[in-house]
Design goal:
One of its GO terms (biological process) is rRNA base methylation. This is Probable dual-specificity RNA methyltransferase RlmN. Specifically methylates position 2 of adenine 2503 in 23S rRNA and position 2 of adenine 37 in tRNAs. Its cofactor is [4Fe-4S] cluster. It is a single chain. This protein has about 350 residues and is an alpha/beta fold. The chain folds into two domains: about 5-55, Orthogonal Bundle (DNA polymerase, domain 1), CATH 1.10.150; about 60-340, TIM Barrel (Alpha-Beta Barrel). The protein contains eleven helices and twelve strands. It has helices at about 5-15, 20-30, 45-55, 125-140, 160-170, 190-200, 215-220, 230-245, 260-270, 295-310, 330-345; strands at about 60-65, 70-80, 85-90, 95-100, 105, 120-125, 145-150, 180-185, 205-210, 245-255, 275-280, 315. It has a ten-stranded mixed sheet with strand order 1-2-3-4-7-8-9-10-11-12. A hairpin with a 5-residue loop joins strand 1 and strand 2 (about 70-80). The two termini are about 40 Å apart. It binds S-adenosyl-L-homocysteine.
Length: about 350
């Protein structure tokens, strides 16, 4: 799964096999075949060589949850080394969207987020990020047409694998997902936003802003001690310059913390000259912290102020809250309940 077509063709040639075998192998894998033995057009000798050199790293499904109204699926996957990751599939009229994880855990330390509570275990490889899509697609029996990197982990803290993943899912021989159907969400690692801009991709860049000034941002997001909002916005302008793409700013509303009219006015001022869109997120309450969701009224009021100030704004629909669909919640509850079982609690 970590190989792209070129790399697998190279391997074939170097190992005295026909390079067209690479295409055949990918055809099987994208049809959910998990063993080389099951690839019907593969000679025995090739299968033996393949088995010696590779394993097909699709994750296994440990749990699958379906929301009551059947519009959201949540998967808990086990990787080859037994690490657990989660992904969410959301069904929209315009197609299925998957929210993938890019790391096991996360080291960014945002106060509202369940993924980061136990820190980061390791980066996911590009194939492990891709594997979530293939496996979820097989399980729901439908194509997945949109990808958001908004699961556990910070994609720009795993830059090379994330970039390889984007290129791989974009490939015609694979999932053929257009770059405009891919969103990368980051807490704002400025040098890597600039690096990403230089690739001139057509993906959507989403910035987790969550506060209109540095002082408030530092209260929930440790990364704000490293990069200021001013630096992030400069990097965003560079991204827009290079790609002509509109930036999404994510703003999770926490009751009494960042959801007042003054915050909305400040945010409007900050973003008024930037080609952007604001996505307001009613915060998902996580039992490990005391942060509460803003009231529906204050969310609406916040959104009205932004719109009045000419900022395009949407409120994120809440899906799958009955199946712990917020980042990191499922993995944590599974690990915790299994630890409790082990301890006999
Ligand atoms: N590390 C990346 C991507 C993963 S998080 C990032 O920070 O953008 C995806 C989005 O979910 C981010 O905007 C993040 O701030 C937000 N998020 C995390 N925990 C949340 C919660 N409990 N409620 C609502 N949004 C949350």
């Amino acid at each position: 799964m970590d190989y792209n077509m070129e790399e697998l063709k190279d391997w074939m040639t170097k190992n005295k096999e026909n390079s067209f075998r690479a295409k055949q192998i990918f055809d099987w894998i994208y049809k959910y075949t998990e063993k080389f033995e099951d690839m019907k057009n593969m000679p025995k000798t090739t299968i033996n060589k393949l088995n010696k050199a590779f394993y097909i790293g699709l994750p296994s499904i440990i749990k699958k949850y379906e929301s009551k109204n059947k519009d959201t699926y949540k998967f808990l996957f086990k990787l080859k080394d037994d690490n657990l990751i989660e992904s969410v599939v959301m069904k929209y009229k315009h197609g299925n969207t998957i929210c993938v994880s890019t790391q096991v855990g996360c080291r960014m330390g945002c106060k509202f987020c369940a993924s980061t509570i136990d820190g980061m275990v390791r980066n996911l490889t590009s194939g492990e990020i891709l594997g979530q899509i293939i496996k979820a697609s097989e399980s729901i029996g439908e194509r997945i047409s949109n990808v958001v990197m908004m699961g556990s982990g910070e994609p720009l803290d795993n830059y090379d694998n994330t970039l390889k993943f984007i290129h791989t899912i974009n490939e015609k021989y694979g999932l053929n997902i257009g770059q405009r159907h891919i969103t990368l969400s980051t807490c704002g690692i400025v040098p890597n936003i600039i690096k990403l801009a230089e690739n001139e991709l057509q993906i959507t860049l989403a910035i987790s802003l969550h506060a209109p000034d540095d002082e408030l941002r530092r209260k929930t997001m440790p990364i704000a001690n490293k990069y200021s909002i001013k630096e992030i916005l400069e990097a965003c302008k560079y991204y827009i310059n290079k790609t002509n793409r509109r930036i999404t700013f994510e703003y999770a509303l926490v009751k009494g913390l960042n959801d007042s009219k003054i915050h909305a006015e400040k945010l409007s001022n900050l973003l008024k000259n930037i080609l952007c869109h604001v996505n307001l997120i009613p915060i998902n309450e996580v039992k490990e912290n005391k942060l509460k969701k803003s009231t529906t009224e204050s969310i609406k009021e916040f959104s009205h102020i932004l719109i009045k100030n000419g900022i395009e704004t949407t409120i994120r629909r809440e899906m799958g809250s009955d199946i712990n669909a917020a980042c990191g919640q499922l993995r944590r509850s599974y690990i915790n309940s299994n630890n409790n079982l082990l301890k006999g609690v």
